[in-house]
Batch of 2 targets.
Target 1
Amino acid sequence: MREIETAKITQEVARMCQEANFYLGEDVIAALKKGRDNDTSDVAKQVLDQILQNAEIAATERIPLCQDTGLAVIFIDLGQDVHVTGGDLYTAIEDGIRKGYEEGYLRKSVVTQPFSARVNTKDNTPAVIHTRIVPGDQLKVTVAPKGGGSENMSRVTVLKPAQGKQGVIDYVVSVVEEAGSNPCPPIIVGVGIGGTIEQTALIAKRSLLREVGKPNPDPEVADLEAELLKRVNALGTGPQGFGGNTTALAVHVETYPAHIASMPVAVNIQCHSARHKEAVL
């Protein structure tokens, strides 16, 4: 049994909350540059250049990529041979969020009683935490701040099994078309297919952690990703809604076995500030 102190977890989460908001991943930068080089619209190229410049300024000056520094979504892979000492794991994570958002001068965006008073908690907690128990003696923590603009345009439905692949394509494309410029394209489109409504929503969000544009290892799913990306970019929404053929940088699809009577589908949209950092303790 390997022991990990909660103080270490708190420190790492605080660091990742800041770095996720200051530094855009190299995979995202590469995808944005590819979009700029390949887009047929001069306006789209200019917008993508500005997005890249924004990322450079944020990294150099250690300031947020976007004023919306997100609700903290945390993914935990907890090794079954790990013993967390010195306190509660979730408390340690939320202490790290408080510390990171305060010290990094990041906007606090969480409110209580969402249907009425909507009072700001003033420390960006509580977080949304997803935990998996996995083999081994390591603790993997991924911090993925999720902005409201892109989350607001995400959708979940349950299709009839008979609608099949074409039903999935039509639904995903319709969700992106409806979203328009609201989620600050170019976007990354996470798609979950199968399971139950909560499972398909979760795998759609998890898919956004994948390296941008890295295909699903299942060839059939990878073909679906490529077809969806082509259809989405044919919409012509373009960067920030100014037109062009770079509406999305990638479509990531994950699947899960489903009940014989249903086919849940989730679309989780991520803006071009595709922020996440991970640490293995």
Note: Helices lie at 6-22, 26-38, 42-61, 89-103, 148-151, 164-179, 197-207, 219-233.
Target 2
Amino acid sequence: MDKVFRVPSLQALQALVEVATASNFTQAAQRLCLTQSAVSRKIQQLEHHYGVPLLVRSSRSVSLTTEGQHVLAVAQRMIGELEALEKRLEPRDSAFRIRIHVSLAVRWLLPRLTDFYARHPDLALSIETVATQRVDPSGECDACILYLPAPADDQAHQVLFEEFLVPVCAPHSVNGKVPPQSLDELSQYPLIHGSTGQLEWASWLQAQHLTLARDSKHITFNLDELALEAAARGMGIAMTDQALAQDLINRGELIVPFGPPLKTGGAYTLWLQPSSALHPARPAILEWFARHSASLIQGDKKTP
């Protein structure tokens, strides 16, 4: 009969991780809410289990032996996996966490949240906004809303809407003038950019077989949210995604002075963390996002 493998004490492994992190027993004991002698005994227990010294002790600090480094690597991996497992299995009555770019949150998601809570008064969303160019899908969240240059062909991504670039401006006065009536008047107005690369205007004009005029005045921001606000205040004409501007258009704060919209091939998608599969709110949230993405698609069909 095979000998039963004796598993080392998990508490002793955790003590080794804390001692190695702090390089002394005092801080490790404080983090573990134990006495220094108790931490020392756990390390000794672990050394007895493996039959080799794991630490080199001095009067001021401790360091790992070669064997200690090997044990530490395994201990860190085990504890990390156990933490991840606990998060996957814990009761999920907490809010469903969504990471999203701040401009998209303000201009697309926020106007729709009233409908979400009206349909699902017992559910809660936790919205985490980021202002970086790319939303990082890793870390503590259940889902992310990502911009992709082309829609992903996998079930982890649910397309919310495709990107259509449109020019927008205030309805009554743009830089002290009446809004333009045609593309021919564009050179008379400042161009507002929602990204420092100014790619949106360049792409839209290229589709019209035009280029950015060298003498054009440019107002550049790093957020669509700021560009839209500047356009609504009459500072110039912004180029943005139609879905981001739609709420301001519906409220009469912005107009599309000329067209047509440019379909870029990009898309905004809802990406789900694998761990969110256990969240009880996930089916309802998926259904709600699907409902609003369908309404956007129907709206696109009506776009001239």
Note: The chain has a mean pLDDT of 87.
